[in-house]
Amino acid sequence: MKIDIMTLFPEMINAVMRESIIGRAQDKGLVEVKATNIRDYALDKHHKADDAPYGGGRGQVMLAEPLYLCHEALSGGEHVHTVFLSAQGAPFNQEKARELLAKEHFILVCGHYEGIDQRFIDECVDEEISIGDFVMTGGEIPAMAVADAVCRLVPGVLSDPSCYENESHWSGTLEAPQYSRPEVWHDRAVPPILLSGNHAKVDLWRRKQSLLRTRQRRPDLYEKLEFTEKSDKKLLAELHEEHPELF
């Protein structure tokens, strides 16, 4: 998996993507996350990558030509799936992370200031992605969030597929609560079922808690679920009885 990130602040990205799990995955050659400075492709000696917007207005707009030249250098003139991190983009989610995983190589473009020249978007960008309904000062943090979410799905980055298959959003539900030692903390005890050693019952408990959390916190996700397993239908009947206010 190779991810190229076009940015004005490569040091910011490298400082994060070279650490922890993703950093170790890069050391092993499982993934490559490379930040490239757009200013290196500016056409003047001052490495100017932005200018005032046509039509007036506050702020600066990133220039199309440095963006284009940087993109050409990274793509080698071939088509490489390109994503612009934008507040106007489609919401990023786990499904989109899996879609990007299948690309094997893609480019993330970080905007800054008041945005980037629309002509570069029209010519080089395949899709725009947003990490939420809010605006940030630049696309670097969203780009790192997308890169992290995709890289952790690459085989070998995490110790086992269950590390992400049992987490929130993988199957449309939120993850069950987690507990560790000590058994009692501030008079709060670990649920007894987790101490039982009965893995089948633990799995059912976690599934039940997952469904409950999804219903409580993300009813929009819950409404999209389809229940075909008998075990799920039994758990739902129990939840209806225990939490009638939610159903």
Radius of gyration: 23 Å
The overall pLDDT average reads 93
Structural class: alpha/beta
Based on DSSP secondary structure assignment, what is the total number of beta strands?
A: 9
The largest sheet is: 5 strands, parallel
Provide a count of the helices. Answer: 10
List the helices and strands and how they pair.
Elements (H helix, E strand, L loop, with lengths): L1 E6 L2 H8 L2 H8 L4 E6 L12 E2 L9 E2 L1 H12 L5 E11 L2 H8 L3 E6 L7 H7 L2 E4 L9 H12 L10 H4 L18 E2 L2 E2 L9 H19 L1 H4 L7 H13 L5
Parallel strand pairs: 1-2, 1-6, 5-6, 5-7
Antiparallel strand pairs: 3-4, 8-9
Brief rundown of the structure:
This protein is α/β, with parallel strands linked by helices and 247 residues long.
Features:
single chain, 247 residues, alpha/beta, five-stranded parallel sheet, two-stranded antiparallel ribbon, 10 helices, 9 strands, 38% helix, elongated
Question: Please, could you describe this protein's structure?
Answer:
The protein has 247 residues and is α/β, with parallel strands linked by helices. It contains 10 helices and 9 strands. The chain has helices at 10-17, 20-27, 64-75, 94-101, 118-124, 140-151, 162-165, 199-217, 219-222, 230-242; strands at 2-7, 32-37, 50-51, 61-62, 81-91, 105-110, 127-130, 184-185, 188-189. Strands 2-1-6-5-7 form a 5-stranded parallel beta sheet, with helices on both faces. The chain has a two-stranded antiparallel ribbon with strand order 3-4. Helix 3 (64-75) runs parallel beside helix 5 (118-124), helix 4 packs across helix 6 (140-151) and helix 8 (199-217) packs across helix 10. The two termini are 43 Å apart. 26% of the residues are buried.
